[in-house]
Batch of 2 targets.
Target 1
Amino acid sequence: MPIIIVINDFPEVEDESEYEQLCAGVRLGIEQILTFATKKSNKLEYIAVITGKDSNAHVLSHLTRDYGSIRENLDRLTLPEKIDWREIISCINELIFEEWMMDGKTFVFCLVGERPTKLSKSRKRPATPEADFYFKFEFESHIQIMIMAEDGNMTKRYYEKVLAGNNQKGSIECVNWQNNDTISKKFTSSISLLSPPHIVTLLCGKISCQVQLYPPVKPFFGIVKHEQVNKRIGSKLKIYGFISLNDLASPPFFSKHFLIPTGSRTEDAPKKEDDRGNVPNVTVLLHGSLKVRQMAAVVQLAPNWFGLICSCSDSKKKSNLILYVLEAGSEPVTWLGDFTSMMISNELSDNNPFLSEKKSPFPIKTDERPSYNQPTISWIKSSGVQADIQKVVRFAKKLPEKENLFYKEVNRVKKAALSYGFTSLILGLSDILEREMTSNDSLSSSAKDHLSRTVAALRSPAACNVDFIISSK
Amino acid sequence: MSSNLLHKTVFILDHGESTLQKCGEKVDFDGVFKHRAAKNSNISPLPPIEKTLWSCNVESVVEYCRIAYDVLPYYYLIRVLTCDDTCHVLNDWNEKEQNTTFLLNGLAKVSVPRENQDANLEEGVRKAMELISQPSPLQLNMLEKGMKIDNTGRVIIFSSSLTQDRIDHLEDVMSNLLGEKNRSSISPSKIRINHIDFEFVSVRPVNEKMGGIKERSDVLSKDLNRTIVCTESGQKLAQVVVQRCIAHYDLGITSVTGIPMKEEQNAASSTNYDVELLHSRDAHSKYCTETRPSFDLPGSEVVGLKWVPPKSSSQIADVQPSRVAYRVTPVDVNSRPSSCLTNFILSGRSVLLEHTHSKQYPNFFLAAHSGVIYIHSTCKCPDIPGISEGAGGRLTDYRIHDFGEFMMGSRLVPESEQTGLKKSLEYMDRCLRYWPLTQSESLLAHQSINQYINPLQALLSKANLTPDVNANCFRLITQLFQLESSNELIPQGVVAKGKREEQIKQFWCQFEKMLRCYSSISENHKSLLDKFLSVKGNCLQEHEYPVFEDSDDVDKDVLLLFENKKEVTLWDVYMTQNAPKNKRLKFEGILDNGKVSKLYPSLQEKELNNI
């Protein structure tokens, strides 16, 4: 899960060496977080640092996995005084909102100073309003507050109130910043609250390997087709076939995750960390073949829950496998049909129409025809009525050649007029056709015949009968 | 899609005499005259005609249905009933009757209201409640599975003869019915109603003053909400009703801006048009907060997204999955710009849509699948950890081509049987048993030997080896023996440690390993291994035999436990995983025919003998 480190609310320290020591303490604390992410999380954690600049929230490091750059930025760290927490919270919301960070829980790490019990009179700006804000984010979060103070009990009480807005998901620690051992210990134990890496087994037939899913896959709690569905991902992801990306056609997903091999196969685990790169791993083969063939692997995550594994590249030409978790249920993508009844093409009987590779079986054909994909009559606006009447007249002028189309349109208008209870339009149509018949000299006698019969039919009482079809006979 | 949308809606259309009034809005239907007036002066325009209130009500309800059917998946259902002195139900809950064509056919048969006939709306409300208590196909399915159903619905009355007293009365009727329906016995053809949204649309002719009815929305009880809407008829009514549809189904509007269109087929220049599309608000409510007033639907807000001219390749380059995909429908379905856009997309092209003001948020695109147009959001993957830096990433001789070939043969296609998934998993299990990942990992993976190994593996992957196939397999194995005797078994240029004999031994070891991997599929597979061993003898040591992890999902039961129970304790998990499936061992000597055997049959005899 992404980690956001916030540094705020440090009281003014006049003694320079004391200030330097406090800064060093903060850096040491953050270093514990970076070390933990490197060792325990395969360097997969995205980490950002937010602090203050000229009394405004300032992003010192954007979410990144390049921990070196974070360390560099920290060298320029100054401890901010009072930055409005609400500004910081909206700043965090924005960071997390970019891209896929919302697919997991976020760990918010706040490093704060001791709050003065009495406000000194010399302060020009009023302090942050007392507890009239809450830590409340637009995503799931765990909030860890580290108070860098010898005795932070007063300050602790203040943040306890503030934490209430996050349904108490988080905790508060006081850290004596003058003792490096305490800093290391307290930060290390706090960061270990981070969700452990989500490790599952990827099965491709009998070939298997351990993979880490990042961010961890959240359970699915939702309503699918009016049913409440609760799902948890299993410990085994089973690939049961492949689909070309063109056939998939950008299906909607529930969440997306990196799928990274851990490199530890029980039988032949290499001794040295560095050798991991030289032990064949099925994910690398899968990645290469999926990329070359422009395909995705279809996986079962749990009974009746499915996902897709694709290769994906970023703008820096780095590429890896991504697991797209689909909505729970057997039909998460309407145009792909039922995932439980998909079958491997090699196993089909010989007469199956999809056996040849050229004919794509997707998207699944449906009888459904939306209004924009069929002739639809809409007479809410006058222009709609005019267009349909004009069409009839256009064919009338080309009688007798366009005889079929003419009668088809006449009957279509007549039927719609009956459906909408707009019977005066049937007479209106007859008036227009009559005028056409009498005023248009270029019409042939046969055309005039057709028109006079149609006019008579439209004016007859039978015209109000749905089953009465006007024709040339 | 928000989860609290109502499954069922029933429209009650007042089909009484009062709806025969003219709506007060003229329809100038004579477009032909305007067109020709300049050229031909001896014709005169036909006088405009007027719709009745009935016509306008029908148009609006059909428009509501058109939007709902277009943008929502099939499990949001609508039924329409007309109401004069009797009720006439136009359609059923089943999928076949849930479309506007079916409704329009029904309406054509109902025809215009007759004079001297009042609408018995009370009967209409009774009928509507009866319809809602009938389970839909989806609910029947849930009932069969023994699931709890939340049966909620909306009843919307269109009438021009409403007064406050009548509304109050119908409210009472409704609330009594809710109690009654739910007290009376529940049967498979009649289910409990949990909640009703009751709406009145009081329609009056254009320019007529509002009656004594107040527009309002109240919660009347825990299972009944009531809304009253008063509006003029004509075009205004259609707008109001579409806005109700937007509120009911939580829809939003995207305005696709700046679509270049030519005025005539071969025109040199083009004019830019905007097209407004309706869809679930979830498609971009998170990203798009800046809105402006709608052009097609006064009173609504739209999010503007800029049309990006499609490149010559006319495809969205990246066919990755997308974060959202929602159905769309044009606000004005028959306008020329709308149909140009929808026809363009239906022809198989995707259209990229860009934010006009922010680069940070994802872009969107429109694409059609099976004749239905969806709005998708694009999705980027920033800062990916490179695969070459991870486990196995430094090797470069993966059998990417061979695995690609395997994938092509393992494409998934739709099947009618539900067993597809199971059979496909079994297929994968059979095929991918011995499959060296890299060229150098195994002598068997070498290209020059592939012509023998690949067909053999394909045959071995079959669930049943018929005598024919078995013979074929052995023929391929024999060919390998022959290659060995002609000294061609180990391909030229193979870099392997040790002497030639060592390599050959290595080859047969790997070959035996492969046969052993497949031998557990069936007896015939096993016999093939035995045949091989009878010729070659054992190459592998026993500890080198391949062992497969049992791939059966041990946690399947635990996962199901989580689905069925709200609170799962560690004890539950333990019991599910470890509880003995059969508590007692079966008695081995049990009789097949179900009869109870007599214990110690000879005991009595012996005892008797001993006396």
Target 2
Amino acid sequence: MKTSSYTSTWVKMAIIIGIILLFAAPFLKIYPVFLMSMMCFALFAASFNLLLGYVGLLSFGHAAFFGGGAYIAGYATKTWGFSPEISVILGGLAGALLGVGMGYLAIQRKGIYFSMITLALSQMVFFIAVQAPFTGGEDGLQPIPRGKLFGIVSLESNNAIYFFVLAVFITGIFALWRVVNSPFGQVLKAIREHEPRAISLGYDVHRYKLIAFTMSAAMTGVAGGLKALVTQIASLTDITWQTSGEVILMTILGGIGTVFGPILGAGLVKSLEDHLASIGFPVPVLIGIIFVACVLLFRRGIIGELEHFLSRKKT
Amino acid sequence: MTVEIILECKELTKTFLGFTAVKNVSLQVRQGSIHALIGPNGAGKTTVFNLLTKFLTPSSGTILFCGEDVSHEKPAQIARKGLVRSFQISATFPHLTVLENVRVALQRKAGLATQFWQSDKVLNKLNIRAAELVEAVNLAQYMNTKAVDLSYGRKRALEIATTLALDPKVILLDEPMAGMGHEEIDRVVALIRQAAIGRTVLMVEHNLSVVSNLCDTITVLQRGEIIAEGDYRTVSSDLRVREAYMGSEAAHA
């Protein structure tokens, strides 16, 4: 017991240092757009992890919510001139709406069939994004103005929007953490661990799964909306199945079912992509190698292996 | 004096793609009794069990629980009504601690299952009751151990504690002694006796001798049909039962 409180002190310190670093980043001359898009993907991966890590559902269609959120938020600012906070909320609502529908259909099946249904449905959303007039087809929506926060503070400068993104990011991660460590989260874990047993204890497993799916989709929509404002573009890349695959990689690399794993995973994958693209290395090759190494060598992911190591040392 | 029937099924039949696994099974479970459903491999015991707990839907026939027709209800629904099952392969939540396992069962009735905005610290108020249940099955020293690290017999005990946490009217146990040594069997028999106080237990078992001292009524199933019913004496001396269990030669002998 003593050791576990000891480790949790370390975790708390790491969180505080992390937050301080994130606040200080704009003054450290780190390219802010890169950091911001990293935070968007970290929030995306963390939302995805709510399903994979805590309910045991592998969605292969989360790009639909990410891209959907990006398109709606982009359209709301660009065409309707909504302020950024409203647009991001709309992005979240779009994710939630898509999530309820897709989730309802997908949770009727389990395992690989569940994943295939999410993939198929997200491909339908992709098709709509290609065909519908409001998405701009191949060009996507661009340039998306960043607008004025609450209609007052202009977010056009990178430093200004950085703090908006940081605030949404921290709030989002906190919300996900709260859900995972709540009475509801405890039931989710029970479902993940042994679904028939949870049913035999009287839990309407479908309802819990659907709520979790919708929450995950909504937060993914928020991440997508945020990303549209940061990069000022909402395009087909956001909504392809490759993006669904990428978020799976981020989560597995960082550690499934850990709070900080997906954040770390997103940071690593995005940094690698950014770095390799600049030196002209074919990114998918390395991503593939990482994926294989991860599955063969450290299945718990980086944070997962670390936690495992620490808990083994404890006993 | 009329005996109250708490769980009853009438002419229950289940076919899987033309194969009749369970045929016209009618069963009455008296309130407060320990009732065993036994039979050789493939007799349809587990199918009957899954039908009663709604994990399978019957092809025809009705199921009455407390006089109410529950033939078309969902498994979670009848669990909430007080008909709670266990599983053949020990069903615990492996990466939750022993205390958490039992607490999950308490959460729903306590109205602490859907609050996603609250800290899970609010669940600590269920700890006292959960600890009582854990102690009752002699697992007190494993309170904070993850279920995955328990021995097979202790997982069984934990499962029974979790089931009792729901305070069910009827407990359905699916082969609770499967794969256990003698000592462990004795321990589980004691646990079932303890759990049965003030409750009804229906258990599926492979082995006739295991249930001999424990059960008030034994129903013997063979090839999907009931071939005998009564107390241990009646059943064990029944010719067809002996035939089913020991082969026809033993019956002739």
